[in-house]
Amino acid sequence: MTLKTIGFIAICLVMMACTESKPTGVFAPGVDPAAASVDGMIVGHRLMAAGEYELALGAFQRAAAETGLTGETLSAIGTANLKLDRLHQAETTLRRATDLEPTWPEIWNNLGVVLMERGKTAEASQVFRKAFALDNGQSDSIRENLRLALEKLNEPVYDMATDNNYKLVRRADSDYLIEQFP
Q: How far apart are CA 23 and CA 39, in angstroms?
């Protein structure tokens, strides 16, 4: 063999070694199509807990595409829309969820929160009453939401200073409370 041939073979071996090495460091891992997927509802609830409501909405919508529009997926989508201040969409979605799951107090509670946010206090108090009855009075957050709705319902004079003293507080995965702050 000549020196040129040996040099050519050496260069080819070095190039082959470079192409076979796997990238490390800053490169993203590849996708394993054979791997099991993570439940979109779990991902969505984790994103909601992290405050990533837009991403959570997408995860809930993907879960709905896989499992169908169940009461659970509609409730989750409605709750994400609530956190994104898309109140009309949240109300529509939560109403559909109550049609599918009429005995879930959490869905009724979240619908009541949306109605309160939209200024529909009388209807919200009725919805909170239904949630309270379905829950047998066990949930403190539903009880407190009902109390606040009734208090606001009995307050006929609109006072801008006291109207803004409420905020939405998350209690559990899909349970929200309207809380008064100073």
A: 29
Q: How many CB atoms lie within 10 A of CB 67?
A: 13
Q: Which two tokens stand for residue 143?
A: 């009880």
Residue 156 sits in which domain range?
A: 39-180
Close Cβ partners of 21 (under 8 Å, ≥ 6 residues apart): none
Q: Examine residue 50 and state whether it is found in any structural domain, yes or no.
A: yes
Give the amino acid at 139: S
17, part of any domain? no
| Amino acid present at 172 | A
Rounded to 5°, angle at Cα 104 from 93 and 38: 70
Structural domains counted in the chain: 1
Q: Does a structural domain hold residue 100? A: yes
Is 0.90 topped by the overall pTM? no
* Rounded-to-integer distance, Cα 78 and Cα 93, Å: 5
For residues 122 and 155, the answer to whether their CB atoms sit within 8 Å is: no
Q: Which of 38, 43, 36, 75 is nearest to 58 (CA)?
A: 43
pLDDT in tens, 17-36: 665 555 566 777 777 778 77
